[in-house]
Design a protein that fits this description.
The protein is of the alpha+beta class. The protein folds into 2 domains: about 5-250 and about 510-525, D-Maltodextrin-Binding Protein, domain 2, CATH 3.40.190; about 280-500, Dipeptide-binding Protein, domain 3 (Roll), CATH 3.10.105. Helices cover about 30% and strands about 25% of the residues. The chain has 17 helices and 24 strands. Strands 1, 8, 9, 10, 11, 12, 13, 14, 19 and 20 form a 10-stranded mixed β-sheet that branches. Strands 4-5-7-6 form a 4-stranded antiparallel β-sheet, covered by helices on one side. Helix 13 links the parallel strand 17 (about 375-380) and strand 18 (about 400-410). Helix 16 (about 460-470) runs antiparallel to helix 17 (about 475-490). The longest helix is centred in the C-terminal third of the chain and has 17 residues, at about 475-490. It is globular and about 70 Å long.
C-alpha cells in the first residue's frame, strides 16, 4: 500500500531513531544481564493466546516466524527460506529451513507449522489476536518434511504481513502437548533467547539460547545473543519505572511518561528511541448498541467534545501525535481523514441537544428524567485511573456528559468488552496491515477480539472482506480509506492519539533493534563496560 509523503517521512524518522545507539557486531561486548522495565504484566506469554502487545515485546526474540518484517516494511526470509503465492491468492507455499530446532531440542519442520496454525483455529482453543490473523484458514498441507502449503477459503492478501507478526510466532508442538498451562509462562520457541522463569507480578527472565548459530534477519552476523540474560521487570507506576533507569537498577524502560521525557533526553547517560506504531491509534471504541451511544448524534458529539490537544499538552507531549482515524497516519494518511471532528464543544452541545439531551442539574444533561451517563471501561494498572480516561471524563463533563470510569483488572475488563457491557474501552491495536480494521469492525468479531464497538454493519463487513481479497496496492488503499470514512461518519470510535513507541536505555546499551511492530529484537544488544 503506497504511503503518503508524511507517512514516508515518519517511517524514515523511525528508522533513524531506531538505529541510534547501535553498534557493529565486531565492536559489541558479550555477556552480562540486561534489565528492562515494562509498564505491565502480560496476560500470557503464549503468542497464540495473547491479545496484548506486552507479550510480543517480551517474546520477539524467543519465538520466530516464517517471515520477518523490519522497520523498512520489507518481508524477508526467517524460518522460511522462500515462499510462493498462488495466482488465485488462496494459498502460499513455504520452503522451510532445515537447520532449526526448538529450545526443547525437537526439530522445526512442516508438521510444526501445520500444528501451530491448526492449534490457533481449533474452536477449543481460546485464541488472542492470532485467530483473526488466520481468518478463512482452510488448512495446511505438508508437501514434504520442509515444504508446507497454507491455504485459505478465499484470497487472503494480508497473510504474509501477519505471518511476520508476533501472533503467528511458531512454538514447539511437543511443548504445547506436554507442558499444559506452562505454555502461558514458558513458551518454547526457536529464537536466540529462551524463557527461563516467570514470577507473577514481578518479572520474567529469558536467557541466551546456546544452540542458536543462525543469522537472525535483523542482524549482520551469524550466532546467538550477545548478552547472557534479559530480565523483564513489571513496573506499572511510570515514575518508579523512570527512577529505576536513572539509578541504574534497570538498563532500559518502556513507555517513558511525557513529564519525564525532557529530563531523560537531556541526560547524556541515556538514549531515547521513538518509533511510530502501526495499526490502530489509542482509540475509544464506542459501544454503539448501549444507550445513549446507540444514537449516532451522541457519538458524533463525543468526537467533537474530546480535547485531544489537551491530551498532547499534558499526558502525551513528545510521545504522540493527534489521531484522526481508526488507523494511524503511519498506516494510511489522507486529507479527508484529517478534516473530521475538530475540537468543537459548541458543536458537541448542539448535537446533544438535537438528540434530546437538555441541560440539567449539576451541569449534566438529562432526557426523560434520565441523566446522560456513560461508563468507560478502563484497566487498573496499579497507579489509579488511566490519565487518558480521566481527561475524557473532564472534556465530556464540559458538555454535560457524566463519564463513570470503571477501572478494573485485565480479565474482567476483557469480559466486559466481550459482553458489550459498558460504553466501550480506550485501547490500541498493533497491526502490521490495514486489515487490522477487520477485528475492530467485522460483525463476526462481536464477542471476541476486538469488535468492542459491537458494530454489525453489512456494508462495512463487505468492504472489510473485499480488502482481504484485493492484492492491488492502490485498490486496497481505496478500500481502507472508504472503511475509515464510514467509521468516522458513523462515529464508531473516538480516535485519540497516534502514539510513538518510546524506549529509553542507558547509553552503554547498544545494538537494540526493532521489528515493524516496534517490538525490540535483542540478539545484537550488548552492554558497553
Amino acid at each position: 500500500m503506497p504511503l503518503s509523503r508524511s507517512s514516508r517521512l515518519t517511517l524514515v524518522f523511525a528508522c533513524v531513531l531506531a538505529l541510534l545507539g547501535t553498534t557493529s557486531a565486531a565492536n559489541a561486548q558479550g555477556g552480562g544481564s540486561l534489565v528492562i522495565a515494562l509498564d505491565q504484566e502480560p496476560p500470557t506469554l503464549d503468542p497464540h493466546a495473547s491479545p496484548s502487545a506486552v507479550t510480543f515485546q517480551i517474546i520477539a526474540s524467543v519465538t520466530e516466524n516464517l517471515v520477518y518484517r523490519g522497520l523498512d516494511g520489507k518481508l524477508v526470509p526467517w524460518l522460511a527460506e522462500s515462499w510462493t503465492s498462488a495466482r488465485d491468492g488462496r494459498s502460499v507455499t513455504f520452503k522451510l529451513r532445515r537447520d532449526v530446532k526448538f529450545h526443547d531440542g525437537t526439530p522445526f519442520n512442516a508438521d510444526a507449522v501445520k500444528f501451530n496454525f491448526d492449534r490457533i483455529v481449533d474452536p477449543k482453543f481460546k485464541a488472542g489476536g492470532s485467530r483473526s490473523a488466520l481468518a478463512g484458514y482452510a488448512g495446511s498441507k505438508v508437501l514434504d518434511e520442509f515444504t508446507v502449503q497454507v491455504s485459505f477459503e478465499n484470497p487472503y492478501a494480508p497473510f504474509l504481513a501477519y505471518a511476520a507478526g508476533g501472533t503467528l510466532g511458531i512454538v514447539s508442538p511437543k511443548a504445547v502437548r506436554e507442558t499444559g498451562d506452562l505454555v502461558h509462562t514458558r513458551p518454547v520457541g526457536s529464537g536466540p533467547f529462551m524463557i527461563k522463569d516467570y514470577v507473577a507480578k514481578d518479572r520474567t527472565t529469558m536467557v541466551k539460547n546456546p544452540a542458536y548459530t543462525r543469522k537472525a534477519p535483523w542482524s549482520d552476523r551469524a550466532g546467538g545473543a550477545l548478552v547472557d540474560t534479559v530480565v523483564w521487570k513489571f513496573v506499572p507506576e511510570a515514575g518508579t519505572r523512570v527512577t529505576t533507569l536513572e539509578s541504574g537498577e534497570t538498563q532500559g524502560v518502556y513507555l517513558v511518561p511525557a513529564q519525564s521525557l525532557p529530563r531523560i533526553e537531556k541526560n547524556t547517560a541515556m538514549r531515547v528511541d521513538k518509533i511510530p506504531y502501526p495499526g490502530a491509534p489509542r482509540i475509544w471504541l464506542l459501544n454503539i448498541t448501549k444507550p445513549p451511544l446507540d444514537d449516532v448524534k451522541v457519538r458524533r458529539a463525543l468526537n467533537y467534545a474530546v480535547d485531544k490537544e489537551a491530551l498532547l499538552a499534558t499526558v502525551y507531549k513528545g510521545i504522540a501525535l493527534k489521531a484522526f482515524a481508526p488507523l494511524t497516519a503511519a498506516m494510511l494518511d489522507d486529507p479527508t481523514l484529517r478534516q473530521a471532528y475538530p475540537f468543537d464543544p459548541a458543536k458537541a452541545q448542539a448535537l446533544l441537544a438535537e438528540a434530546g439531551w437538555q441541560p440539567g442539574a449539576e451541569g449534566i444533561r438529562t432526557k426523560a428524567g434520565a441523566r446522560l451517563e456513560i461508563v468507560l471501561n478502563a484497566i487498573e494498572y496499579g497507579g489509579g485511573p488511566e490519565p487518558t480516561a480521566q481527561l475524557i471524563q473532564s472534556s465530556l463533563r464540559e458538555v454535560g456528559v457524566d463519564v463513570k470510569i470503571k477501572a478494573q483488572a485485565r480479565p474482567p475488563w476483557y469480559e466486559d468488552n466481550y459482553r458489550c457491557a459498558t460504553h466501550g474501552p480506550v485501547m490500541f491495536l498493533r497491526a502490521t496491515d490495514p486489515d487490522g480494521l477487520y477485528p475492530l469492525f467485522h460483525s463476526s468479531l462481536v464477542g471476541g477480539n476486538f469488535n468492542w464497538s459491537c458494530v454489525k454493519n453489512a456494508k462495512l463487513d463487505q468492504l472489510l472482506e473485499h480488502g482481504r481479497r484485493e492484492f492491488d496496492p492502490a485498490k486496497r488503499r481505496a478500500i481502507y480509506l472508504a472503511i475509515e470514512q464510514m467509521a468516522l461518519d458513523e462515529a464508531l470510535t473516538v480516535p485519540l492519539l497516534d502514539e510513538l513507541s518510546v524506549w529509553a536505555f542507558r547509553a552503554g546499551v547498544r545494538g537494540v533493534k526493532y521489528n515493524f511492530a516496534t517490538y525490540p529484537v535483542l540478539s545484537d544488544a550488548a552492554i558497553q563496560k
